[in-house]
Each structure stands twice: as structure tokens, then as C-alpha cells.
From TrEMBL, chain A:
GO terms for biological process: phosphatidylinositol dephosphorylation; signal transduction. It comes from Hermetia illucens. GO terms for molecular function: phosphatidylinositol-4,5-bisphosphate 5-phosphatase activity. This is Phosphoinositide 5-phosphatase. The keyword Glycoprotein does not apply. It is found in: Cytoplasmic vesicle, Phagosome membrane; Early endosome membrane. Gene3D superfamilies: 2.30.29.110, Endonuclease/exonuclease/phosphatase, Immunoglobulins, Rho GTPase activation protein. Residues 698-867 form the Rho-GAP domain. The lineage of its organism: Eukaryota, Metazoa, Ecdysozoa, Arthropoda, Hexapoda. Residues 149-169 are annotated as: Disordered.
UniProtKB/TrEMBL annotation, chain B:
SMART domains: ARF (SM00177), RAB (SM00175), RAN (SM00176), RAS (SM00173), RHO (SM00174). It is a lipid-anchor. GO terms for cellular component: cytoplasm; endomembrane system. This is Ras-related protein Rab-10. One of its GO terms (molecular function) is GTPase activity. Keywords: GTP-binding, Lipoprotein, Membrane, Nucleotide-binding, Prenylation. The keyword Acetylation does not apply. It holds the Pfam family Ras. Belongs to the small GTPase superfamily. Rab family.
Length: 870, 204
């Protein structure tokens, strides 16, 4: 059981409970308890609430373990203190309370609670005392001032159940009007009640399965009906006599109608020391055989089970036709003889489930002798404490029948009195029960038969031995449960085998039974509700927009769009951008970034997410591929915004990538006949296709020529012009150069500096999908490969590539020659990385050395003019 | 001792062109409601619905996908793990019917090999606007050996039945031991959709 109830101070809890109510509705007392729902437990806070003229006990379910505000308390049940109100304790012993039940005329069912702190009796006791006082007070005042009588709205299923509550309407207090204030707190359907603790994540949502069980239990009253069963209890102390030949019919077949269940108890079947020391536990088959022959003849019976301990045996026999309704049967025995161990005294019990109710039968043989009253009481407690079934003890059963030789005698010394009604006043069991010392909450029918002990065997005469024992009602049958009605309670004088007379009692018991048709309906209804509950409790996120329009996008420019996501549902939401496919583990294209790309939002919160686009040299060719020949905006990417345990939302990144020389193959650049800014992607892709077949318009891209030409003119003495460490990335200056190049701005002044020109050149070279030296003959990287052949390999490249390469290396050679600060190692390494971007794992050193071979030789006999842009 | 509420969980998927009525079909099945305003699904949605088949409680988790063209590559990544796929077209929209072949190809490429499929010709209430005859729908289903039904989310025609039939087909497949007994029925199902009686007891 979960004992971790509320650890807040009592006054604090008192306060928040009070906050649940209106002025004039005062919380008088609070009690922490829990309920068992199926196999789980659920914490409750009970509150006694008073208005001017009525009282009620509220049961609150807790939204979280430690309620912090009144909204953490959800009304689960209300018990108006009306005439039908009952608060009944199940006491294990005088100190600790096992459990208690609440019921009232207006609550169809009795609810069982267990104090959360059973060891702290104070909270419970004071609560109970207060409730009892109020009830008594109300009963008294109702008697004095009868009020307008409105019959309580009894539930159909509940009416006519025997035992417990009466439906007597005279002097009834608690009219509907008086309790009208409760209506405000009665909620038909708290299923979807917004639960703050679920919303802020501190409590998990009930999963379908437990929700279903919970609901099924909650709606039990809609499909459970009571079905009456006949129960026949019998007990006989045989005083060690063989009874397998005795005619038991006067004892076991005495009822008019055939019983549904027999519970037949024997004591002192075997008094031998051997049986005692060996704790004989094998049922006596010959006795059982005799039992089976002696049952009511109006039905077919079968033995359900028998349990034995030494002389005690309990046999449960059931009508064959109800056997399938018994879904569980367990037996147990406890010895309370010498050392509380020996089985000559003690109890044996059978626990079973019949339809929806649990039944317990106990056969006990308690301590003997007139003076041992205390000991008998202790035996009773001991059996209660130790006779445990797999999931419950005796007291947890819906119906309990306690039968046996309880051995209580008469507190009477003279045997003058022979009137049984007078003698009964001296009966120890009656005295002890009246003093609440034993069999608390048990009932016993009126005794109208003469004492069952002690007779001279074979006669109806009182004990004539010299002990001359006082007659007594040793053999008794008691029960516990509100739905049990006794029909007869008798002894059988005719059976004279033993010094005890057998006793039997017959009962009608209302057993909770599933009405299959109603159950099916409720079951279906609940399935639907649970489905709805699950569907309605899907975490959801609201996005401001699902299209992010970036409009025109240029190379090497940063753009961003913000959008808000909000949690408007009543659950915490965990979101993240999800990988698109199992193979593509990225959440977005390389040139897009999302911040943040995951997070948690509690109810009512929102968050701004920034999506950024920055198309750089490494990724631009992919954007170009995506843009294809589309004119205008296209969906550049689709982001998947995933909500944990919920739905996914697609966010489309829209935009149009504007053509620029960056990222285009050199072949394409050599086929252009107008500035790129004036071109459409459709034209560009067409040119790109043709560039493999048609002659080039120019020998090398004018963009590269312009940059190198500028550097040649003004940058030859520049320090640190080409460095491995590149500081220009996003730089307006470079983007100005981009626009200057794209708009064919040769006529205008170059907008940059030698440094930005150098960076632009590097970016231009590295932004194409393929590196300049492509395709690559891997041989050329071998340092021993003749330079002649390397040169030939270069000549095998497409004309634009060859020209760019030769022109570039020639310029770099020149630069190194003229610039005292230039470092050939650095420059060769830098260009090696950019110009040879093979997917093969080529060592950087090889690439550097290859370039270096070109930079170090002054072998270029051809004049610069050879490549002049025309 | 508490009985398990759900015996099985089946994951189903709804696919098809935008506007054919996938979301409406799901909404009808889960909430028994219909709206005529069209809000195109931008993402993936799912709903739970528990049905009872052959005494077993089966929890269906039904995923509704976005039908718009631009989401196609993304939605295919949701096919994996689906145990049943409803492929929906609109009987008033020729294009959506023609695309069935394309959707089937998508299923072949991306879904589990043993996924149960079913073709639904939706909006069968709109008889005056019909452009795809029932026969054509049956023909394409037969050609591919797939179940077929005409449905209407608006008039609640065959919606429950379609889901239960698909679930039952999955059940046949999953409950391997009972296969012998059910094998015959599975084959019968493949003939077309005129064998209603076998399903009369589900999802009433
Ligand atoms: N007459 C009629 N209209 C329907 C039916 N089912 C859906 N519609 C209408 O068709 C339109 C589209 O329905 P949706 O269910 O939103 O379409 P969808 O397939 O989910 O579309 P996407 O989410 O874009 O993939 C809506 O206007 C619906 O009202 C039907 O059975 N009969
Ligand atoms: Mg949709």
C-alpha cells in the first residue's frame, strides 16, 4: 500500500480543503485515508463539512501525492449525514482500526476506506467521534422536530437488501432541500477534469488499462445486482466419537429448500495425542462421505473443499449448479492450543469468491473451561490475526460466517435456573460481545434452543458425571455482513452420539452478481469513454504557422523566421523535431538550423522557435539541386515537429534560392551570355544540360578571372592573403562582391579589398558540387608520378576546369615569387583542400604536394594573356 | 487477477490523396461525427479505438496522414510498423483513383511486406457526382488482391465495417495457431467484398 500520503502539515491540508467550499460551509475535521480500487490503492482525504443545518462527509481524490492547492482535490464521493448514514469501523483490536465504511441514503453504495496512518489512532478517533456525535445529535433533533419527509432516492439495485440499513421513513431527517448545497459538488463526470498535477507533469496520466479498471469499478453499481443464495451452516463437537455411521440428516437436511452452500464444521473428530502432535490435516473422508449422503435431497451437491486441523474440520459443499460461479477457493488453518501452536484448539477457514462477493467461513474451537473467557477472546483475535488468505484476512470478506465450538459458558454457579431466556443473560459470549471485547460487528440470531452442552452421550440428560458441568451454549453460529438474513438457528436434540448437540443455522445472503447484459452495456460504454479519454488526453501543441516563408534567399546570407508553439492542452508537452526517415537521421537540411529543436512546455506556456537559413559554400550545390528548374518559391524543406505520445506537425520551409555564380559548375559559368541576376533557374538548368555538348562561350568563368585579375593588380604585396584560418564567412563585403560578380559589374569599381577578394575566390572554388579537379586521376597524387603526366592529367579536364587550374596556379606561383611573406606550404595546403575534394581518403599531405609541384615550378611559358577574358 | 483490458494492439494507417476524406473517415470511426469543412491535415494524427473481435479486445491505433503531394516523401516514413493500411480515394475524383497505383507502389516500397491493405472508395453518398464506378474500384482491388469497400464518412456507410474487416484480417494473420481454421476464410475475403455475414457481429 502506498502510505506516502500527504506530508504537509494538518493545518495546511485543513486550509486547502476549506478552500474547496463556500463561506458558510465549514470543514470540521479532516482524515487521511485510502481506498482499494481493484489491485491498486488510491489516496483520499475525507472531510466533515457543516452548514447551518446539515452535515456531510466528503471524500476527495488527490490529483497528486502532496496537494498544494484546492484544485488538487477532486470530489470523489459525498455522504450526507442523513438517517441512512453509517460510519462503521472494522476493528482488529482495540487499538488499531483496520478499515471503516461510509454509506448514506443518498450514496447508493457503501464505500470502504482505510486510514492512511493506522497507527496514529488520534486522527481517526477524533474524526469518528465527531461524526458519531453529529449523527446522534441529528437523530435526536429529528425525533423532536419531525421535518417534511422526502423519501431518499434509493437506488433500485440497493433496495430490499437484508440486514443493515432500514428504509424506515418515519422521523427521517435530511430532506433534499437541506442537502441541496451538495449538488454543487456532485459531478457526473470528472473523467476529464483538468488536473493541475497532470498538467505540470508531476503526475502521470492514467494509462488506458488502469483507467478502464478504475471506471469499471466506479460504475459497478450499474451492472451489479444482488442475487440471493441459501447458506447452511452447521457445527458439531463429536467428542472424539466416530460419526461416519450416524444419521446426520436431522442436522444437515433440516431446511425446507435445498441450500446453495453448506459449511459443515466438526470439532474433536480425533482426540488422540498422535493426531494432536502430528497436526493431522487430512480431511476425514469417511465423515465427508457420510455428510454427502445426508444432505438435502432437493439438489445435487459436490464437495468444494475441506480443511482440517486435528479435531477441527470444515467442509464446504455446494450445489453443483452454482459451482461455476465460484471462481476462487482457498483454505487455511491456525492452531491456538498450547504455545498458540498446537492444533487441538484454533480455527480452520475457507475463503471463496462467489460471483462478485467474497465469503469466508471459519470453524473454530476456542479454549475450554468456564474461567477462560479472556483466553477465548484472545484465541478469537489470534485466529483473526493469523488466518490469512492470499490477498486478504478474514475481515476483508464481504460475508463472514463464524461457526464452531466457541466454548463460552455461563457465568452462573447455581443450576437452579432452568429458564433459558434467563440463562442467556449469563452467557459469556453475549456478555463479552456487549462489552465489545470479542466478535465486534458480528451478529448472532436469537437463541431459542436449549444449551448444546453437556449431555450424557446417548441421552438428552445433563451431565451426570461428578464434574457435573454447568450447561452452556458452547456451539454457536455468528455472521458478519449487511446482506445476510438468518432464517433458522437450532440445535438437534435427536443426535445423541456426543456430549454436544449439533447446531445449524440457515441464511439468505445477497451476493453481488454481475448482470451479464448490463455488464456488457457498461463495459462497452466504458471502453468508449476510455478511448475518448485517451484521445482527449493526447498531448497537443499548437503552432502559429505551418509554412515559414523565407521568400528570396541569397548565397551566404543569414535569414531567420520565428514562430511560436504553444501548449493549450491540459497536459505537459514534450516536443522535438524528428529525423525524417530511418536512413536520413537529420532533422533538417544542412543549411537550416532550428533553435531550440526540442523542449517541454507545460500547460499555458508558449515558446518561440527560430528557424535559420544560411547557405554556405559547402551546401549551396544541394540547394541548387533542390531548386531545380522551379521558378519562384518552393518547399525547401519540411520539418517534422513531433510531440511525444502525440501527433506530428509538418512545417514547410518555403523560399526561392536566387541564382548566383556561387555553387554553379565552371562549365555552366562559361556558357552564360548575360548576368546571372537576370537569369531564371529554368534557363540555368537548360544551360547546364547543354554545357556538356555545346561549345563554351568563354574560356574560363569571368567571375574567377575578375577576382584573380583584381588580386594580380592590387593584392600582390598583401600580407596573409591566403591563410588556412579563414575569418570571412558572413561578411557584407563578400556579399557585395557576390552581387558585383552576379550583375556582371565589371564596369563598376570592385567593392572589396584584396582580402575579401581572396576569400570570395576560395568560396567560389569550393562551392561547386564537384571540386575543380574532377574527375580525379588518383595517380597524380603519387609524389613519384612524373610531372609531365600530372600536367597531362590536368589537360584531360574540361576546358574551363583546365583553364581555371592553370590560370590559378600560375597566378599563385607569381604571387609566391613576388610576395616575401607568402608561404608556399600554406598556400599549397589551402588550395589542395579546395581543388581536390575527393571522397577517397586522400591524405592532406598528398594533395598539398600535388599543388605545390605546380606552384614551385616556373614552368609556365604561356603568357597570362592566353586566358584573357574576351 | 484483474483481466487485461486489451488483448492486442493494431496499428493502422490511412493514406490517399488530399481531400479524399481520410480524416473524416477516422473522425467518423472514433467520434461518430462528421464535419463538412475541409481542414487539410498537415502532419500525422492518430486516434485510439477499441473494438471487440472474436471475444478479443483489440485496441486500434489509427494514424491519419497528410495527403498533400509535398508531404509524400515524408509520410512514407510512417508506413513502417503499420499492420494495416487503408488506401482511400474519392469516387467523385478521377485523379485520386488514378493515384491508387502510385500509393500502392509507395506501400510496396515502404511498408512491411505482410501489411494488410484495403482500398476504400469514399464519398459514396455523392451519387450524382460519381465519376469512378464501383466496378472499377472492385477491379483494381481484385487485380492487386486487396479488399475493397465503398464508404461514406458523411452518411456513415461501411466505416465501422471497413476497420473491423481490416482488423480481422490482421487478427487472422497474427493468431498463427488458428490459421488452419481461418485460412479458408482469408482466401474467401480476397475474392471481393460480398461476404458481409462473417463480420456482422463486430463493432455494431
Ligand atoms: N459528401 C462527402 N464528403 C466527404 C466525405 N468524406 C469527406 N468529405 C469531405 O471531403 C473533404 C475532405 O475531407 P478530409 O477528411 O479532410 O480529407 P483528407 O483526406 O483528410 O485530406 P488531407 O488531410 O488533406 O489529406 C471535407 O470537406 C469533407 O467534408 C464523404 O463521405 N462524403
Ligand atoms: Mg486529413
Amino acid at each position: 500500500m502506498n502510505n506516502g500520503t500527504v506530508e504537509n502539515t494538518p493545518t495546511f491540508i485543513f486550509q486547502i480543503v476549506q478552500e474547496k467550499f463556500l463561506p458558510g460551509e465549514t470543514v470540521k475535521a479532516v482524515l487521511h485515508a485510502y481506498q482499494r480500487i481493484g489491485v491498486e490503492t488510491s489516496n483520499r482525504i475525507l472531510a466533515l463539512v457543516a452548514t447551518q443545518d446539515s452535515y456531510a462527509v466528503f471524500s476527495f481524490a488527490l490529483a497528486c501525492d502532496k496537494p498544494r492547492t484546492f484544485s488538487d482535490l477532486v470530489v470523489d464521493n459525498i455522504f450526507p449525514i442523513d438517517k441512512g448514514f453509517r460510519m462503521e469501523s472494522e476493528v482488529r483490536n482495540t487499538i488499531s482500526v483496520l478499515g471503516f465504511s461510509l454509506s448514506s441514503s443518498q450514496s447508493a453504495r457503501k464505500s470502504t476506506f482505510y486510514p492512511s496512518h493506522p497507527d496514529d489512532a488520534d486522527e481517526y478517533t477524533s474524526f469518528k467521534l465527531l461524526v458519531d456525535d453529529i449523527f446522534d445529535y441529528k437523530v435526536r433533533t429529528a425525533d423532536t422536530y419531525p421535518q417534511a419527509i422526502v423519501p431518499p432516492p434509493f437506488d433500485d439495485d440497493e433496495s430490499g437488501t437484508g440486514g443493515g440499513t432500514t428504509t424506515d421513513e418515519s422521523g427521517f431527517f435530511g430532506s433534499e432541500k437541506e442537502f441541496s448545497w451538495l449538488a454543487r459538488y456532485r459531478r457526473e463526470d470528472d473523467l476529464l477534469a483538468i488536473d493541475r498535477c497532470i498538467a505540470d507533469g508531476s503526475k502521470p496520466l492514467l494509462k488506458g488499462e488502469s483507467k478502464f479498471q478504475y471506471e469499471l469499478k466506479k460504475h459497478e453499481h450499474e451492472y451489479i445486482i444482488n442475487k440471493t443464495y441459501r447458506i447452511y451452516c452447521a457445527t458439531w463437537n463429536v467428542n472424539g466419537q466416530q460419526c461416519n455411521a450416524t444419521n446426520l440428516r436431522p442436522w444437515l437436511a433440516a431446511s425446507e429448500d435445498p441450500p446453495d452452500i453448506y459449511a459443515i464444521a466438526f470439532q474433536e473428530l480425533d482426540l488422540s495425542p498422535k493426531a494432536i502432535t502430528l497436526s493431522e490435516s487430512r480431511p476425514d473422508r469417511s465423515v465427508i462421505h457420510n455428510i454427502m449422503k445426508s444432505l438435502h435431497e432437493g439438489a445435487q451437491y459436490e464437495e468444494l473443499c475441506s480443511v482440517r486441523l486435528v479435531g477441527m474440520m470444515l467442509t464446504i459443499v455446494v450445489k453443483r449448479s452454482i459451482r461455476p460461479n465460484i471462481t476462487r477457493c482457498e483454505k487455511q488453518s491456525v492452531g491456538t492450543g498450547a504455545l498458540n501452536l498446537m492444533g487441538n484448539k484454533g480455527g480452520v477457514g475457507v475463503s471463496l469468491t462467489l460471483n462478485e462477493d467474497s465469503l469466508c467461513f471459519v470453524n473454530s474451537h476456542l479454549a475450554a473451561h468456564v474461567s477462560e473467557v479472556q483466553r477465548r477472546n484472545e484465541d478469537f483475535n489470534e485466529i483473526n490475526r493469523r488466518l490469512l488468505f492470499s490477498t486478504q484476512d478474514i475481515s476483508n470478506h464481504d460475508h463472514i460466517f463464524w461457526i464452531g465450538d466457541l466454548n463460552y459458558r455461563l457465568n452462573m454457579t447455581s443450576d437452579e435456573i432452568t429458564d433459558y431466556r434467563v440463562m442467556l443473560k449469563f452467557d459469556q459470549l453475549n456478555i463479552e460481545r456487549a462489552a465489545h471485547r470479542v466478535f465486534e460487528n458480528y451478529y448472532e440470531g436469537e437463541i431459542t434452543f436449549q444449551p448444546t452442552y453437556k449431555y450424557d452421550p446417548g441421552t438428552d440428560n445433563w451431565d451426570s458425571s461428578e464434574k457435573h458441568r454447568q450447561p452452556a451454549w458452547c456451539d454457536r453460529i455468528l455472521w458478519r455482513g449487511d446482506k445476510i438474513k438468518q432464517i433458522v438457528y437450532r440445535n438437534v436434540m435427536k443426535i445423541q452420539l456426543s456430549d454436544h448437540k449439533p447446531v445449524y443455522a440457515t441464511f439468505l445472503a445477497d451476493i453481488k452478481t454481475k448482470d451479464e447484459q448490463k455488464y456488457k452495456r457498461v463495459h462497452e460504454k466504458i471502453l468508449k469513454r476510455v478511448d475518448k479519454y485517451e484521445n482527449d488526453n493526447q498531448p497537443q501543441i499548437t503552432v502559429e504557422k505551418t509554412d515559414l516563408d523565407f521568400e528570396e534567399i541569397k548565397f551566404n546570407e543569414e535569414y531567420f523566421r520565428d514562430f511560436t508553439v504553444a501548449n493549450n492542452c491540459h497536459l505537459p508537452v514534450e516536443f522535438s523535431f524528428k529525423e525524417k526517415t530511418e536512413t536520413d537521421m537529420r532533422i533538417c537540411e544542412d543549411w537550416i538550423s532550428i533553435d531550440p529543436c526540442y523542449g517541454t512546455l507545460i500547460t499555458g506556456r508558449s515558446l518561440s522557435i527560430r528557424v535559420k537559413i544560411h547557405i554556405k559554400s559547402e551546401t549551396v550545390w544541394r540547394v541548387i539541386k533542390k531548386q531545380g528548374n522551379h521558378i519562384g518559391k518552393i518547399p525547401l524543406d519540411i520539418l517534422v515537429l513531433h510531440v511525444k505520445n502525440g501527433r506530428d506537425i509538418f512545417i514547410t520551409v518555403m523560399g526561392e534560392y536566387k541564382p548566383s555564380c556561387f555553387g554553379l559548375p565552371v562549365e555552366t559559368l562559361c556558357c552564360l551570355d548575360k548576368p546571372i541576376v537576370d537569369m531564371q533557374w529554368s534557363e540555368l538548368t537548360e544551360i547546364q544540360m547543354k554545357s556538356t555538348t555545346e561549345p563554351f562561350k568563354i574560356t574560363m568563368p569571368r567571375e574567377i578571372f575578375l577576382l584573380i585579375d583584381y588580386l594580380y593588380r592590387v593584392g600582390m604585396q598583401e600580407i596573409n592573403l591566403f591563410q588556412l584560418e579563414r575569418s570571412f564567412k558572413v561578411n557584407d563585403n563578400i556579399n557585395e562582391i557576390r552581387d558585383w560578380l552576379d550583375s556582371c559589374g565589371a564596369a563598376e569599381e570592385f567593392p572589396g579589398t584584396p582580402h575579401t577578394a581572396a576569400e570570395a575566390l576560395l568560396m567560389l572554388l569550393e562551392s561547386s558540387g564537384n571540386p575543380l579537379i574532377h574527375p580525379l586521376d588518383l595517380n597524380v597524387l603519387n609524389p613519384d608520378y612524373p610531372f609531365e603526366l600530372c600536367l597531362r592529367a590536368i589537360h584531360k579536364l574540361s576546358t574551363p576546369r583546365k583553364n581555371v587550374f592553370l590560370y590559378l596556379t600560375m597566378f599563385l606561383h607569381e604571387f609566391i615569387e613576388q610576395n616575401r611573406n607568402a608561404n608556399i606550404e600554406v598556400i599549397a595546403k589551402l588550395f589542395g583542400m579546395i581543388l581536390i575534394r575527393s571522397s577517397h581518403d586522400i591524405h592532406g599531405l598528398q594533395r598539398k604536394n600535388f599543388i605545390k609541384r605546380f606552384l614551385s615550378r616556373g614552368i609556365f611559358n604561356f603568357a597570362r594573356n592566353e586566358f584573357k577574358y574576351s | 487477477m484483474a483481466k487485461k483490458t486489451y488483448d492486442l494492439l493494431f496499428k493502422l494507417l490511412l493514406i490517399g490523396d488530399s481531400g479524399v476524406g481520410k480524416t473524416c473517415i477516422l473522425f467518423r470511426f472514433s467520434d461518430d461525427a462528421f464535419t463538412s469543412t475541409f481542414i487539410s491535415t498537415i502532419g500525422i494524427d492518430f486516434k485510439i479505438k477499441t473494438v471487440e473481435l472474436r471475444g478479443k479486445k483489440i485496441k486500434l491505433q489509427i494514424w491519419d496522414t497528410a495527403g498533400q503531394e509535398r508531404f509524400h516523401t515524408i509520410t512514407t516514413s510512417y508506413y513502417r510498423g503499420a499492420m494495416g493500411i487503408m488506401l482511400v480515394y474519392d469516387i467523385t475524383n478521377e485523379k485520386s483513383f488514378e493515384n491508387i497505383v502510385k500509393w500502392l507502389r509507395n506501400i510496396d516500397e515502404h511498408a512491411n511486406e505482410d501489411v494488410e491493405k484495403m482500398i476504400l472508395g469514399n464519398k459514396c453518398d455523392m451519387t450524382d457526382k460519381r465519376v469512378v464506378s464501383r466496378e472499377r474500384g472492385e477491379a483494381i482491388a481484385r487485380e492487386h488482391g486487396i479488399r475493397f469497400m465503398e464508404t461514406s464518412a458523411k452518411s456513415n456507410i461501411n466505416i465501422d465495417r471497413a476497420f473491423c474487416e481490416l482488423a480481422e484480417a490482421i487478427l487472422d494473420k497474427t493468431s498463427g495457431k488458428e490459421v488452419n481454421e481461418n485460412l479458408e476464410r482469408v482466401v474467401v475475403h480476397r475474392q471481393g467484398q460480398e461476404k458481409a455475414p462473417a463480420y456482422s457481429r463486430c463493432c455494431s
